[in-house]
Amino acid sequence: MDDALVIGGTRFIGRHLVTELLANDYDVTIFNRGNHDNPFADEDRVEHVQGDRTDDDALEAAADAVDPDAVFDCVAYYPEDVRRATRIFDDCEAYVYISSGSSYGREEIPKREDETPLEPCTEEQATDDSHDTYGNRKAEGDRAVFEAAENGVNAMAVRPPIVYGPHDYTERLDFWIDRVNRFDRVVVPGDGTNVWHRVYVEDVASTLRVVAERGEPGEAYNTGDRRIVTLDEMVELIADQLETDVEIVHAGPRELEAGDIDLEDYPLYRDYPHVLSTAKLADLGWESTPLEEAMGRAVEDHLESDRDGRENGPDREAEERVLGILDTF
């Protein structure tokens, strides 16, 4: 495969995907509405086609203009987006849809592609735009991929958990990097042993390429850091990259009440472990970036950016009240 069309391509996962494709000798076209700055505006091997992916005519015009070997769908948030794209790009060598670990409908450890059932999706959920139905919509997108493959389209899905790394506009990890960078004592909700599988963004990009090149139509592939760490271990890993020492202070619901804080107010906290099996992807020859290296790049990017993630979690004043209560015990 030589020519790739990336639907999206300028913000986070798509941005890293374009870089990954260029490093592997693809010519790339990005298709989006142009609402965000194009970081590849000066790159001769990256073309930009402006259009709305919900407009059939615009998407068909892109298909005719590019005639891509591989299509990577980074911004398919509704099942109809997937159905539209797999219909228009039905003759490409690979269509890869970015789904989500949230598409799984049962809590299992680990969640496996061919065993763990997906979330259901009603007609109302399929068109809803709230966070509550995100997993339902992604799961229905997976089913659209499977249906397209049954009809002869070389369509596949990739399911990442929480994605982190440079240019992460969600700022979830930035909250924790900022806390460790500014304070000697960091409040961690619960006992610090909770697990929410994460994946470095450059590894998502390499997953998408590997699946396009080596994956099987009609299959879904989990991706994620090959070494999973607890919230405590993540904070310590951040401290190591910042070359600082930090005291982790655990706070349960009773202690957090002093700051009017709930456990779920903290980003990357999850009560029940969320773990995805990545064995199926590894069988394609994929490997993840060593965790220390990935976190080092994420921390470096944070320090060079203006992101602080503070809106994602409790304010420090509220945490100081919690620390005051804990210091009296």
TrEMBL record:
Coiled-coil positions:
none
Its domain of life reads: Archaea
InterPro entries to which the protein is assigned, alphabetical: Epimerase_deHydtase, Lipid_A_modif_metabolic_enz, NAD(P)-bd_dom_sf
Family annotation (Pfam families):
Epimerase (PF01370)
Q: Where is this region: Disordered?
A: 106-137, 301-322
Query: Domain named NAD-dependent epimerase/dehydratase: which ranges?
Result: 4-224
Biased composition of type Basic and acidic residues is found at 106-115, 128-137
Q: Which PANTHER family match?
A: BIFUNCTIONAL POLYMYXIN RESISTANCE PROTEIN ARNA
Q: What is the name of this protein? A: Nucleoside-diphosphate-sugar epimerase
Which organism encodes this protein?
Answer: Natronobacterium texcoconense
